[in-house]
Amino acid sequence: MPFGSRNGEEMKEPVKIKERPAVERSATFDEVVFGYSEEEALQEASRCLQCKKPSCNDGCPVGIDVKRFIAHLAKKDYQASYLTIKEKSSFPSICGRVCPAEYQCRKACVFTKKGSPFASERAINIHFLERFVGDFGNQEGIETPAENNKEFIEKRVAVVGSGPAGLCCAGELARQGIDVTVFEGLHKTGGVLRYGIPPFRLPRNILDFEIDYLKKYNVKIVTNYIIGKTKLLDELFREGFSAIFLGLGAGIPSFLNIDGENLCNVYSANEFLTRVNLMAAFRFPEYHTPINVGKHIIIVGGGNTAMDAARVAIRLQRIHGIEPSTTVFYRRTELEMPARRLEIEHAKEEGVKFEFLVQPVAFSGDKDGSLQTLRCLRCELGEPDASGRRRPVSIKGSEFDTPCDSAIIALGLQANTMLTNTTKDLKLDKNKDIIVDPETMQTSIKGVYAGGDIVGGEGTVIEAMGMAKRAARAIAQYLKDKS
Predict the structure, then answer these.
(1) How far apart are CA 477 and CA 482, in angstroms?
(2) Which residues 6+ apart lie within 8 Å of 151 measured at CB?
(3) Residue partners of 318: CB distance under 8 A and separation at least 6
(4) 102 with 460: CB under 8 angstroms?
(5) Residues 469, 60: contact at Cβ < 8 Å?
(6) Phi, psi of 15 (to 5 degrees)
(7) DSSP string spanning 14-77?
(8) Are strands 156-160 and 243-246 parallel, antiparallel or unpaired?
């Protein structure tokens, strides 16, 4: 059905994505969102106006030629569409699932009204089209060979961390024929893609396939190897690496700093999600990584990590045969929540409850030190703070207690300083994030570059990849200049 017209032409309705029913999905870790069928993808691609000045391209942090890949898709030239995306992104199937497109390419679509904080429902579903093309390319085994660049013979680059920034930088460099080794501290690669994002949002076979694709470019991956402890940056240079990229992420959780936060069954979201996603606690006792699943689980926070934690928690309750009672406590209103609208709606559909304008002030437990109750204050919104959102102001005398035998604190992450504390001359800001040149991503040490959450704090997967691509370009130029 048309929803209006543009320049006299009727515009088609967006093709709605299909999802696994909430009742069915909320007791499993199976993928929630189904991809477009071929027919649906072609129908959605046909909605694209192929603008002369495609603003959607500018909305992509890694610079995908959105207009061109959709044009190829609309003509059923799926290989050309796939290769167009791969010119700029090594991970279309991943990004098509986890990118917050409503704040990026879709927000820039001409179907979105100017001034809108996120994409309108009428914007082209660019991320779902990217997912369709990425999955097609993966299934068909389409390859994008590395360049045989004589300038980079015997040039070696070390990449520290295998999260989105590290993997992206490694892929960009390796495609140019540079010898790349990725060092990962954990036993599996992926960083936040694996330990932070649940399988029902990013299936592990998709993640593994696109990471393994890097091996076709001869990227070497070394796991269980902590740079900053097992080996220092100076040692990497002495071993013959010409440049180093730091994609460390941000692994130190923030807490509320209130009474009772050290009680049993108070988790940081980082620990909780790592235990479940990376260490398969949801398959206990098959995997010996238990999570104490409470009857009354409260998640504190309003970002994407809070939504992931809440959706994981309510699934664990159902898997363990516990009557679901998972609630997100947030000190502002739903309008101010930084989480993706899609994730909030999915959480509601799956049975997660929300309490807005509440401020936790103390946890209390039983004689054995286990969490039992959370005390809160009601809030109202005051003047805007530095973030531009109205500041929550607690209301005197509004205290109330609520049952809580498991709490998950999802207030963001800070820089992990294990490497930065052991590296001389590496300049940091007041938050202990690495200071870089924003154009080249070079740090204060010659030949050392950085990107992702360790630069400027937490961001999105695609923002980390955007930084990594800038760094890769600068590293390639640096290597050429050294030749």
Answers:
(1) 9
(2) 479, 480, 483
(3) 26, 27, 324
(4) no
(5) no
(6) -85, 115
(7) P-PPPB--HHHHTTS-S-SBPPPPHHHHHHHHTT----SS-HHHHT-TT---HHHHHHHHHTT-
(8) parallel
Which residue reads 């129908």 in tokens?
Answer: 43
State the Cα–Cα distance between residues 217 and 146, nearest whole angstrom.
6
Beta bridge partners of 374: 363, 402
3-state secondary structure of 448: strand
Task: Supply the pTM of this predicted model.
Answer: 0.92
What's the average pLDDT block by block, 10 residues per block, for the chain (483 residues)?
A: 46 89 93 96 96 92 96 97 94 95 91 76 94 96 78 88 96 93 96 96 96 91 95 96 95 94 96 95 89 96 96 96 97 93 95 97 96 97 86 94 97 91 93 96 97 91 95 96 81
The distance of Cα 431 from the centroid of its chain, to the nearest Å, equals: 21
Domains of the chain are 2-140 (1.10.1060.10), 150-251+415-482 (3.50.50.60), 253-413 (3.50.50.60)
CA distance 80 to 414: 41
